[in-house]
Amino acid sequence: MNKQEYAIEPDFSPEKRFTDIKNKVEPEFWRKKKLEQMNKTEWELLCDGCGKCCLNKLEIKGKIKFTNTHCRFLDCKTCLCKIYPHRFEKVPDCRDIDLRAIREKPRWLPKTCAYWLLDNGFDLPEWHPLVSGRTDSVHQAHMSLQNRPVISETGIQDYENYIVDWKDL
Ligand code: SF4
Ligand code: SF4
User: What is the number of the ligand 1 atom nearest to the C-alpha of 116?
Assistant: First the structure.
């Protein structure tokens, strides 16, 4: 695989997901529909871009433990996947966020994940881009991986040494 293949595709811009949002979706659609009823546009807009689902995890005694190591394809500055359109081809254990994944036990999505929150009867937090109207509000609220002590999984052998107990996981 050469470096070029790692690059985000030129026409792929998750930041633009929230541009012109009024013409794409109904206001506060997440309060009116269940996850099962959402269309693809609505579903994609729910992701707050925190990047925390791309941390490596261990299952220990029936509980998920997050580590501060992240998938090698995560860009920690933007908290976006560098290979988003090709992630399932290139990373066999990259998970699609579908209803099954959201409801899986033990929970492996962070407790701030919008999909998990809505599915469990909570509203979106004020820092969610859909509520704030700004993609960077998740970073400014310190709810993303931006500026956290995380490292790439490349070369990591013993993940147990990297377990973290952050409150928002
Ligand atoms: S944890 Fe949830 S909200 Fe955060 S990036 Fe992953 S899917 Fe999106
Ligand atoms: S390949 Fe999957 S796990 Fe890796 S950064 Fe992309 S979305 Fe996250």
Answer: 2
Ligand 2 centroid from CA 115, angstroms:
17
Q: Could you check whether the bond before residue 106 is cis, i.e. omega within 30 degrees of 0?
A: yes
Asked whether the predicted pLDDT for residue 60 surpasses 90, the reply is yes
Helix and strand tally (H, E) in the chain? Answer: 8, 5
* Average pLDDT across the chain, whole number: 91
**Which ligand is the nearest neighbour of the Cα of 14?**
1
pLDDT in tens, 118-137: 999 999 999 999 999 999 99
Ligand 1 residue neighbourhood (C-beta within 6 Å): 47-53, 97, 109-110, 113-115
